[in-house]
Amino acid sequence: DKVFSREQLLEEVWGYEYYGDIRTVDVTVRRLREKLEDDPSDPHYIMTKRGIGYHFRRP
Question: Where are the beta strands (DSSP E) in the chain?
Answer without folding.
Answer: 46-49, 53-56
